UniProtKB/TrEMBL annotation:
Pfam families referenced in this protein's UniProt entry, alphabetically: FdtA
Protein name according to UniProt: WxcM-like domain-containing protein
InterPro entries: QdtA_cupin_dom (IPR008894), RmlC-like_jellyroll (IPR014710), RmlC_Cupin_sf (IPR011051)
Domain Sugar 3,4-ketoisomerase QdtA cupin: 6-133
Length: 140
């Protein structure tokens, strides 16, 4: 079972050029899965939180394309937060890890590359249900 201690920031190749920088994320090289879905979150009002769920089967690479935000990961026992603020870095969130995103800067854009297409059945949206799925006691 994956814990938050196993998770780290993943650097991507950054190709610097006088005309601007380029970063690439390729399935099989930079990502341990084939990308089945990409989506981005933006225009998040101050003080709002996104995420608040875990996945049963889907893995996700979360990247701050613009601006910054805090990604907090929770394995039911420990929590770990990452400040994402570089478009050439991401965090691979494995199956079974609860995530929240908050502290969005003005103009922040969060891009997510996912291993699966959208399926509501793959989501665990209740934290108590999440704890039960990991064999932990509710009411932590």
């Amino acid at each position: 079972m994956t814990t938050v201690e196993d998770i780290k920031v993943t650097p991507f190749c950054k190709i610097a050029d006088r005309r601007g920088n380029l970063t690439v994320a390729q399935s099989g090289t930079d990502l341990p899965f084939e990308i089945q879905r990409a989506y981005w979150v933006y225009d998040v009002p101050g003080g709002e939180c996104r995420g608040g769920h875990a996945h049963k089967e889907c893995q996700e690479m979360i990247i701050a394309i613009n601006g910054s935000f805090t990604l907090t990961l929770d394995d039911g026992v420990n929590r770990r937060s990452f400040l994402l603020n570089h478009p050439y870095e991401g965090v691979l969130v494995p199956v079974g890890i609860w995530r929240t995103l908050d502290d969005f800067s003005s103009g922040a854009v969060c891009m997510v590359l996912a291993s699966h297409r959208y399926d509501e059945e793959d989501y665990i949206r209740s934290y108590d249900e999440y704890l039960q799925s990991r064999g932990l006691s509710v009411g932590r």
